[in-house]
């Protein structure tokens, strides 16, 4: 009765009354008053009346409310979903929206997009499995936006963001969204600022849902979507950006790079190459944020491939450590355009360590050479030099892959640079750190007691010179911290069984420190006094412990 008599008569009255306020009110009444199942069965008749209303009637709100009611109906009673399919609700609504947009030529963009948002919300709730419907709606939106400049209207942009965010919220798995061919085309219509906001929303969705994007093709699509964060769009200069915001954006890209993963080494290498292609186009300012995560992603892959090299069962293996190290070298070299020598140096040393674990001596040596070249030519700041030389010494000490000749060359370089640091205390600390290069506490590690002693004596000379320098310039010799630090190194090697470190040398060093502390020119310093007395307590403790160690410490008097 409703279908054949009531609705057609009511709609006839509505269309004929020609009063836009009455038409809007009456259409709203029909939608709100009659039950949902009635609307579902008479959808065609109801929607057929919409294009016949006065042009000024707000049809989009009428349709939005109808779709909202139907969505809630589908949500509340899942058993009615077959009815929606039976009456082809999506096709009818989609066609009605198309007709309304065509009929109302001067409908603003925001109105059209808000209709698509309502239709998309309806589709995601009623037909979540029909990705083709979702893509169709996005395609219609692209068609409506095509031929227009980038969206400037903030209301319209908000609607587009809502349109693009809806699938992300529904399919918590971004991989599903990446299959929608029209998704990136809608994003292209956003202005640079909103494009970035949308890119950030996409990355946040991936992080929140722990999504794994695991193929190079999907990574390609994903990086196309977030290109607003990766490179300049439409000539927007990076300088215009707030520094804090820029850092936050780039850190989110860095986090994203860390979660791209595939168990297959070949596919993982393809992913790394895809990411590299995109980030290298981002300009030098972004590289300091994006190169490290990519380098560590490649290093992780190297660790997985450790021990596999060259041909396996006579076949050419696409992903080998050598290949990845070559790629790493190129990735890190890109930092020279920034320039960021300290960061590049750290990454070279990380690669050297990985090459050492893969037992690739020539590659490890090459990475060390690169690190030394950077140190010589690029690292000028004295504080940065101190940090860099300690990093080099620490990494070199862990290297087991080098033959005698290569190790000697690198060790010689490291000790040479240590002695050339600007400030005497820095020189002293770097030189005594070098002593560890000649004594590695492993079973088959290098144990060259004589050169250890040479390093320690040299650092003592430098500490003496530092004291005298302080005497001349300040009239006081400064605290004795350096001497106490060297004493601790002597004790370390003494305990490790270095035959060159005699108890008499330790004894005379203790006497020297006591004399220095009592001299008139010494500057009282609580920290170095406490350090010295702790060291003496330690010696006393070892003496009392007995056994072999107690015997060793016996001759030392404190």
From TrEMBL:
<keyword id="KW-0967">Endosome</keyword>
<dbReference type="GO" id="GO:0010008">
    <property type="term" value="C:endosome membrane"/>
</dbReference>
<dbReference type="InterPro" id="IPR042491">
    <property type="entry name" value="Vps35_C"/>
</dbReference>
<keyword id="KW-0333">Golgi apparatus</keyword>
<keyword id="KW-0472">Membrane</keyword>
<keyword id="KW-0653">Protein transport</keyword>
<dbReference type="GO" id="GO:0015031">
    <property type="term" value="P:protein transport"/>
</dbReference>
<dbReference type="InterPro" id="IPR005378">
    <property type="entry name" value="Vps35"/>
</dbReference>
<keyword id="KW-0813">Transport</keyword>
<dbReference type="Pfam" id="PF03635">
    <property type="entry name" value="Vps35"/>
</dbReference>
<protein>
    <recommendedName>
        <fullName>Vacuolar protein sorting-associated protein 35</fullName>
    </recommendedName>
</protein>
<keyword id="KW-0963">Cytoplasm</keyword>
<dbReference type="GO" id="GO:0005794">
    <property type="term" value="C:Golgi apparatus"/>
</dbReference>
<comment type="similarity">
    <text>Belongs to the VPS35 family.</text>
</comment>
């Amino acid at each position: 009765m409703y279908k054949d008599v009531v609705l057609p008569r009511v709609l006839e009255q509505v269309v004929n009354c020609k009063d836009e306020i009455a038409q809007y009110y009456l259409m709203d009444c029909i939608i709100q008053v009659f039950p949902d199942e009635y609307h579902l069965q008479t959808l065609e008749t109801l929607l057929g009346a919409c294009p016949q209303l006065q042009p000024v009637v707000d049809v989009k709100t009428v349709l939005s409310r109808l779709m909202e009611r139907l969505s809630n109906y589908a949500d509340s009673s899942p058993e009615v979903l077959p009815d929606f399919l039976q009456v082809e609700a999506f096709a009818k609504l989609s066609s009605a929206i198309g007709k309304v947009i065509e009929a109302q030529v001067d409908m603003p963009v925001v109105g059209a997009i808000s209709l698509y948002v309502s239709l998309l919300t309806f589709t995601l709730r009623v037909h979540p499995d029909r990705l083709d419907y979702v893509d169709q709606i996005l395609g219609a939106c692209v068609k409506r936006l095509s031929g227009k400049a980038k969206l400037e209207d903030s209301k319209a942009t908000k609607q587009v963001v809502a349109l693009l965010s809806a699938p992300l919220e529904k399919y918590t798995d971004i991989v599903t969204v990446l299959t929608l061919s029209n998704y990136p085309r809608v994003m292209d219509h956003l202005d640079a600022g909103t494009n970035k906001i949308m890119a950030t929303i996409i990355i946040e969705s991936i992080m929140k849902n722990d999504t794994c994007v695991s193929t190079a093709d999907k990574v390609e699509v994903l990086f196309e979507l977030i290109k607003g964060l990766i490179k300049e769009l439409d000539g927007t200069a990076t300088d215009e950006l707030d520094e804090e915001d820029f850092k936050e954006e780039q850190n989110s890209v860095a986090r994203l790079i860390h979660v791209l993963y595939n168990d297959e080494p070949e596919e993982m290498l393809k992913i790394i190459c895809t990411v590299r292609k995109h980030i290298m186009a981002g300009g030098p300012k972004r590289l300091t944020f994006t190169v490290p995560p990519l380098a560590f992603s490649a290093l992780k892959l190297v660790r997985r491939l450790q021990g596999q090299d060259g041909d396996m069962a006579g076949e050419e293996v696409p992903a080998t450590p050598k290949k990845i190290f070559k790629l790493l070298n190129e990735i890190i070299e890109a930092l020279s355009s920034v320039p960021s020598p300290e960061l590049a140096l750290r990454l070279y040393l990380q690669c050297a360590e990985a090459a050492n674990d893969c037992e690739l001596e020539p590659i490890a040596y090459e990475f060390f050479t690169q690190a030394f070249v950077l140190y010589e030519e690029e690292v000028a700041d004295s504080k940065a030099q101190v940090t860099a030389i300690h990093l080099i010494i620490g990494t070199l000490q862990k290297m087991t892959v080098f033959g005698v000749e290569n190790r000697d060359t690198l060790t010689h370089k490291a000790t040479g640079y240590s002695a050339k640091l600007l400030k005497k205390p820095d020189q002293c600390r770097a030189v005594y750190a070098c002593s560890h290069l000649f004594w590695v506490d492993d079973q088959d590690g290098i144990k060259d007691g004589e050169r250890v002693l040479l390093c320690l004596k040299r650092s003592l000379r430098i500490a003496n010179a530092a004291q005298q320098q302080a005497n001349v310039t300040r009239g006081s010799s400064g605290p004795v911290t350096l001497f106490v630090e060297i004493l601790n190194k002597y004790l370390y090697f003494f305990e490790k069984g270095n035959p060159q470190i005699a108890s008499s040398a330790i004894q005379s060093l203790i006497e020297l420190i006591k004399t220095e502390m009592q001299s008139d020119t010494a500057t009282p310093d609580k920290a170095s006094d406490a350090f010295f007395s702790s060291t003496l307590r330690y010696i006393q403790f070892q003496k009392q412990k007995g056994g072999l160690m107690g015997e060793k410490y016996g001759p030392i008097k404190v």
